[in-house]
Amino acid sequence: MALAVLLALAVWVFNQLQEDPILEEDVSARVVFDAPSAGDVLLSSALPPTVTVRVRAPQTVLGELAQADNALVTLDLRSLAIGEHVVSLLPQLMKRPASVISSRPLTATVLLERVLQRAFPVRVSTIGTPALGYQARDGRSDVVTVVVSATEAVIERIASVDAIVSLDEVRSNLQQRVRLVPRDRDSNLVTGVTLSPMEALVTVPIEQLSNYRTLAVSVKTRGLPADSYAITSIMADPQIVTVFGNKDEIQKLPGFIETLDVNVEGVTESVEDRVGLRVPTGVTLVGENTAVQVRVRVEAQQGVRTVTRQPIVIGLASGLRSSISPEVVEVRLSGPLPRLNEVSQADVRVLVDVTNLPVGTHQVQPVLMKPDELRAELSLPTIQVEITETPAGRK
């Protein structure tokens, strides 16, 4: 009897191993930890996010261990003192049966540091230069000092806390809100810090030098576009230029400088060209803008025209005749004047489709045929159509 029981057990174990074999595989164990609760202690060195564990277990258990949080490395750092420590990374398997064959890494080094606070003055730092003929005065920040929170080693690296603004091509007083940036002695960014406040409003006064003047570009046109066309916009690029000269002469100039004439006589489309400037005597243009790119936009003027049309009945079956009311309708057209002036009888038609309509009186919505460039609307939404039979012997 004992032999029979052992034999049956052996057969059962064999079947189980066939259905759920014992295997060895690597699984990842997530590293979780309880950090020190004191607000002035910081875990400076990073722990590995996972530990690779070689596990021996049935195939089904291995599948479960591969899922989230079924294999963990739990650390309690709350009792550790300030300084460097070596901690063991011991994996825990949440599913059974399973055994750990090996794991890597076995240990990790953590560094606990005390967080310090120190106040630093805010320094306004600029990059770039204003436009030619302008100069920047000393900038100022609405935040005088900032409190920096970081470990002692990090705080010792900080040489300044800067509010950085760009002055590239500015021509007027600059006011900008910027993030404060801690930097070391080589102007490199220092990370791992907390700033309070994190932003500042920076103001930098910009002044124009007395022998320079900024002038708006005024585009001068000659002639008029063709009939029914008009100038809708004029653009110059650049829109302003800087001139240099004697201080007294510069101050006498108006606030603009004209281009040479741009001919638009009889044109029906936009004109684009590079045009020189009328530079006053004793004044010199600064930079390479001795000419500007000009675009004069010319478009057909918009208008309205009303025409009358007799509706055309289509789709009338054989043996039937029709009468419509009203016999003439008004069509209101709008769009470019040149096209409105060219509208012919064939361009605008009003169609009344009576296909499959029986004898009787019907209100039919007309179909309006018109040029694509124009908009149109009818004076009536529907047209009355009376359909009757043709008298015998008549068509």
A few lines on this structure:
This protein is mainly β and about 400 residues long. The chain has helices at about 1-20, 60-65, 150-155, 245-250, 335-340; strands at about 20-35, 40-45, 50-60, 70-75, 85-90, 90-95, 100-105, 105-125, 135, 140, 145-150, 160-165, 175-185, 195, 200-205, 205-210, 210-220, 220, 230-235, 240-245, 255-260, 260-265, 270-275, 285, 290-300, 300-310, 310-315, 320-325, 330-335, 350-355, 360-365, 365-370, 375-380, 385-390.
Task: List descriptors.
395 residues, mainly beta, RNA Polymerase Alpha Subunit, Chain A, domain 2, nine-stranded mixed beta sheet, five-stranded mixed beta sheet, 5 helices, 52% strand, flat
Structure description:
The chain has 395 residues and is mainly β. It folds into four domains: 19-105, RNA Polymerase Alpha Subunit, Chain A, domain 2 (Beta Complex), CATH 2.170.120.30; 115-208, RNA Polymerase Alpha Subunit, Chain A, domain 2, CATH 2.170.120.40; 212-300, YbbR-like domain (RNA Polymerase Alpha Subunit, Chain A, domain 2, Beta Complex); 303-389, RNA Polymerase Alpha Subunit, Chain A, domain 2. Helices cover 11% and strands 52% of the residues. It has five helices and 34 strands. Strands 2, 5, 8, 10, 11, 12, 13, 14 and 15 form a nine-stranded mixed beta sheet that branches. Strands 6-4-1-3-7 form a five-stranded mixed beta sheet. It has a four-stranded mixed beta sheet with strand order 21-17-20-24. The longest helix is centred in the N-terminal third of the chain and has 18 residues, at 2-19. It is flat and about 115 Å long. The termini are far apart.
